[in-house]
Amino acid sequence: MRALALLPSAEPKQPSTPTWSVLEGGLIEAGSVEPEAGPAAETSALRLARQIYAAWFQRCLRQGGHRKNPGAVAALPRAAIEHQLDRAIDRSGPDAAELLPLHDAQQQRLAELGVLISALAASDKQHVRAVQTWDRLIELGLDTLQGFADLEVVFAAQRAAQDPLTGLPGRAALQQRLQGEQSLVLRQGRMCSVVMLDIDHFKSVNDQHGHQAGDRVLAAFARLLRGALRPYDGVYRYGGEEFVLVLPGATAAQAVQIIDRMRQTIAQRPLVQTQTGGLHIRFSAGVAALNERAIAQTLRCADAALYHAKAEGRDQVRLERGHCA
Ligand SMILES: Nc1nc2c(ncn2[C@@H]2O[C@H](COP(=O)(O)OP(=O)(O)OP(=O)(O)O)[C@@H](O)[C@H]2O)c(=O)[nH]1
């Protein structure tokens, strides 16, 4: 077997991002770190946001507790916290929409905390208003801490549903999504298509380049699918080298066109680079309409269309045939 160094070519290297780190004793300082990649990246960004916040809150309690000098209450490093929260959301993948209400509520609390800090700094320490502002700051400060805990719980649940290799959600999430989309199709007459997609001759990638290389191809392919589709389209790892796409708003005929364009684009450039050259990946796909029939039947129809695409030579997209299941 040849030894190969596989370098993903689909994704540009990310620049280092200025961030903050928490030092011993609750001090916070600006620095520059390489953003982490991979499925755990969103959790680490969220953890950093919480650490920066907790260090600030601790310092605030220590300084503000004296009530001698409200102006000494530490300025809230809001930009650093929000930066990490945004990163966490960005990296949380296709189901980020579920996190947005919690994320927005957290941003609002931070904004209100910022206002309270300014009001405290400008107020007379003896004034009853300063005491009230301080009380509100403590109350909201604790709520914000709870907000981080809530976000972490939801992130953890989301991560548990993700396939660790590709970062994509799996079959359980697909089932849930299809149920939701089907009810919109039935109640609102919306269109939705389901695509079953399988990499061609993937076994030979493993055989020629090794299983680890195969894993990297799967991860790069998943990123490519995710990047090629609209944010509200669903991309799921169905198993092995098989993926399912959910395309709301697309008729089955439109879905065939969309996926066929994607097939041609993907075939044009290598998915990963090897020491001996680029590795091209091709795929076959079957498309079925999501309608009133059982979801399992829709999946069977997409699978049958995929089977025909494979049988008719691979590297093509096929629409389901009548009475497929
Ligand atoms: N590296 C890697 N390989 C996997 C993974 N899951 C499944 N496979 C491999 O995917 C290959 C699938 O092979 P086949 O079902 O024969 O399909 P194929 O070679 O793609 O051929 P066609 O689908 O007929 O075009 C098998 O060799 C599996 O071992 C994985 O997570 N990582």
UniProtKB/TrEMBL annotation:
Q: Which residues form the GGDEF domain?
A: 190-322
- Broad EC category: transferase
EC number(s) per entry: 2.7.7.65
Entry-linked Pfam families: GGDEF
Question: Record's SUPFAM superfamilies?
Answer: Nucleotide cyclase
Q: Which reaction does it catalyse?
A: 2 GTP = 3',3'-c-di-GMP + 2 diphosphate
Q: Tell me which Gene Ontology terms the entry assigns under biological process.
A: cell adhesion involved in single-species biofilm formation; negative regulation of bacterial-type flagellum-dependent cell motility
Top-rank lineage group of the source organism? Bacteria
MF term (GO), any: diguanylate cyclase activity
- Gene Ontology cellular component list: plasma membrane
Indicate what this protein is called per its UniProt record: diguanylate cyclase
Question: In which organism is this protein found?
Answer: Thiomonas arsenitoxydans (strain DSM 22701 / CIP 110005 / 3As)
Instruction: Tell me the organism's taxonomic lineage.
Output: Bacteria, Pseudomonadati, Pseudomonadota, Betaproteobacteria, Burkholderiales
